[in-house]
Automatic annotation (TrEMBL), chains A, B:
E.C. no: 4.1.1.11
UniProt-recorded Gene Ontology molecular function terms: aspartate 1-decarboxylase activity; pyridoxal phosphate binding
UniProt pathway: Cofactor biosynthesis; coenzyme A biosynthesis
Source organism of the structure: Halapricum hydrolyticum
Keywords: Decarboxylase, Lyase, Pyridoxal phosphate
Name of the molecule in the record: Probable L-aspartate decarboxylase
Length: 351, 351
C-alpha cells in the first residue's frame, strides 16, 4: 500500500525516456475512458469510433488521406505487426527482413517471434546506407525497414531511396517513425506516405504525441494489408481481429485523439521548435566542453561522455541512457526544459 | 472533440464483456501512475517495484510461493508468450501445441505468429477430454494447454490430468485462467500451481480482478522459463527484456496491485458468491422459460435463446454475446447485478 502512495514519477531529471508526461487533455480523456475496451468494438462503441478518429488524425500527420490502421500497445507491437503482414503476404518458406543496424530492438523480437531472418546493414553517418541495404536484399526479402528518427541518435534514413529498393524487390516497405513521427512534420525530412511509396508505418501518440501510454500507432496504405493479420473471434460480437493483443486500452485510444486534437499542428510545431532548440543548445554546451557530440538531426543528443561520469550523474538522480557505442544519450522530450538541461550541465561541470 | 465529451461507457446493459468497471482503488492507482512505464524499469523505478508486488500477489492467488512473471497487456499476450516459451525451449523443427477446442482464439493468433501447429481436441461436456488430448500429443508437442474457466462456458478442464499428460511427453503445461483466475480460488476446482505441475499460467487482473485495462498476467514456475523470451535492449538502462511489448502501462500495473490489495481474499470471495448466485438465478429463470441452459460452473451462463430474439435484445441496448454454437452468452462480471438481470429477463419476457 505504501508504495502505491509514494510519488509515482518525477520527470524533472528524466533525460532517458522516449515517453513523457501526457498533455492535460490527453490525461483527462484517458481517465474518462479508463473502463473501455476497443478490442471489443461492438460492446464499447464510443471508443471504437474514437479509434477511427485516431487513425484519421494519424493519417493527416503522415500524408495518408485514407489510412488503414489501429492504435497499438506501442511501437513494438506496430513493428511486429508490420513484419507479420509482410511475412504472411509473401510466398516464401525462408523470409528475411532487411533493416539498418540501428533499427529498434523490437525488430529482433519480431524476428524471434515470427521466425524470419533479420539482416542488418551497416549504417553510414548514423543513417541507413542504401548500397549496403541493397546488397542484403534478395528474392526472399519480404520487408525493408527505414527508420525516421532512430532510437539512438534521432537520425532519419533516406526513406525515398529505401522505398524504391523495396519495391524493386517486390518487398513491402515499412517506416519506423515511432518516436520521430510527431517532430518530423515540422522538419525538412522526406519520411512519410506522401514522400515515398511507404506501405506501413509505426508512429506512436504516446511518445512525442503526448498521449498517455498505451497508445502506439500502426498505419497501412491499404486495408488489404491489415487483412493479413485477421484471426477469427468466435465469441465476440465482431468476428475478426487484426490486433496483436485482445483486450485493449480505451484510455490510450481516447488520449491519443485528445492529444492530437489539442496539438495538431500548431502545438506540435511549437514543441518541435522548443525541443530542437534545447537539443542544439545542449549539443553546443557539450561541444564547448570538449566532448565529441553527434550533431542532432531531431531533438536527441549523443556525446562521448565517459561512463564513470555518467554513473556519477545517475547517482545525483539523473536518468540518462547510453547508445550502443556507450555514448551519453539525452532525449529532448516535451517535459525536458532548458532549465533542466542547465541544471544537468551544471552537475556535469561539478565533477 | 464532441465524441470525447460523450459518455464513455454505460455498464448497466453490458452482459457480454469479460472486462468490468475497475475497483475505485484500482482506478485511483491507474490515474496516479498514468505517466509511468514499467517497460523501462531503471527510469521508472517505483512502478517497476510495484510490478514485483503484482507478481507476488498473483503468486498468492495461484498457489505459487516464488512466482516469476510480469504484468502483460492482457490474456492474449500471456498466452502468446506461453507458447513462445515452449517453442523456444523445445528442440524440434516442427513444434505443435495441443489445446482443447474451446481454447481462446489467442492460441490461433499465437500459432500464426509463432509458426507452430495448433492441434485441437474435441471436448466432452464443455471440458477437455483427456483421452482426446492424449491422442494428439507426440514427440513434437511442446505445450499442452488447459483452460480454467473457458471463454464460452466458464468451464474448468481436468487440470491435474492434463498436467500429467504434458509431462509424460516432456512438454510444458500451461493453464489459461485469464478470466476464471479470480473466481476459482473460492471454488472446489483444482486448477493452479499448488494443485498440479503447472509450468505457466495466464491470469488477468483486468478481468475479474477488477484492475484497470491493461493488466493481464503471465506467471511461470521458474525464472528460467522467462529467459526463453529475453531479447537484448541496447539503449535502455536495463539490458534484457522478456515482454512482448516494449513501453508498457504503469497504470495497469499500479491498478492491479491496488485491486488485489483491496480485494484479496475477502472482497474477491464475496464477489464470487454474489456473481455465482446471479449466474445460478439467471440459469434457473431461463430454464423455467423452457430454454436449454448450460449449467454454470463459474459465473457465466449460456442458453439456446434464438438469434432473432437476441437481436431484439440488442436493439433494446443489451450487449450480449454468443457462443460458437450460437447460444446466448451472459458473463456475470462484478458490474452485473441481480437487478440488471431481472430487467434483462423482463425484456426477454416482453418479446
Amino acid at each position: 500500500m505504501q508504495r502505491l502512495e509514494s510519488a509515482p514519477q518525477d520527470f524533472d531529471r528524466v533525460l532517458s525516456s522516449m515517453c513523457t508526461e501526457p498533455h492535460p487533455a490527453a490525461r483527462q480523456a484517458a481517465e474518462r475512458f479508463l473502463a473501455t475496451n476497443p478490442g471489443d468494438p461492438e460492446t464499447y462503441q464510443t471508443v471504437a469510433d474514437l479509434e477511427r478518429d485516431a487513425v484519421e488524425l494519424l493519417g493527416t500527420v503522415t500524408g495518408l488521406p485514407e489510412p488503414a490502421g489501429y492504435v497499438t500497445s506501442g511501437g513494438t507491437e506496430a513493428n511486429i505487426q508490420a513484419v507479420r503482414i509482410a511475412r504472411n503476404r509473401a510466398d516464401t518458406d525462408d523470409p528475411n527482413v532487411v533493416v539498418p543496424t540501428h533499427a529498434h530492438f523490437s525488430f529482433w523480437k519480431a524476428a524471434d517471434l515470427l521466425g524470419v531472418e533479420l539482416r542488418t546493414a551497416p549504417a553510414r553517418d548514423h543513417r541507413a546506407d542504401t548500397d549496403a541495404m541493397a546488397e542484403l536484399i534478395d528474392a526472399d526479402t519480404v520487408l525493408v525497414v527505414g527508420v525516421a528518427g532512430s532510437t539512438e541518435y534521432g537520425y532519419v534514413d533516406p526513406i525515398p531511396g529505401l522505398a524504391e529498393l523495396a519495391h524493386d524487390a517486390d518487398a513491402l516497405f515499412h517506416v519506423d517513425a515511432a518516436w520521430g513521427g510527431f517532430y518530423l512534420p515540422f522538419s525538412d525530412h522526406r519520411w512519410h506516405f506522401g514522400h515515398a511509396d511507404v506501405d506501413t508505418m509505426t508512429i506512436d501518440p504516446h511518445k512525442v504525441g503526448q498521449a498517455a501510454v498505451p497508445a502506439g500507432g500502426l498505419l497501412a496504405r491499404s486495408p488489404e494489408l491489415l487483412d493479413e493479420l485477421a484471426i477469427d473471434t468466435p465469441y465476440l460480437e465482431s468476428t475478426k481481429q487484426v490486433t496483436l493483443t485482445g483486450t485493449r486500452s480505451g484510455a490510450g485510444v481516447a488520449s491519443a485523439v485528445a492529444a492530437m486534437e489539442a496539438l495538431w499542428p500548431e502545438g506540435y510545431r511549437e514543441q518541435y521548435r522548443r525541443s530542437m532548440d534545447n537539443a542544439r543548445w545542449l549539443a553546443d554546451e557539450l561541444a564547448e566542453r570538449g566532448y565529441d557530440v553527434v550533431e542532432p538531426e531531431l531533438p536527441l543528443v549523443a556525446a562521448d561522455v565517459s561512463q564513470p561520469l555518467v554513473e556519477k550523474l545517475r547517482d545525483r538522480g539523473w536518468r540518462v541512457a547510453r547508445t550502443g557505442a556507450d555514448e551519453l544519450r539525452v532525449v529532448c522530450m516535451p517535459h525536458v526544459t532548458r532549465s533542466m538541461l542547465r541544471s544537468f550541465v551544471a552537475d556535469l561541470d561539478w565533477y
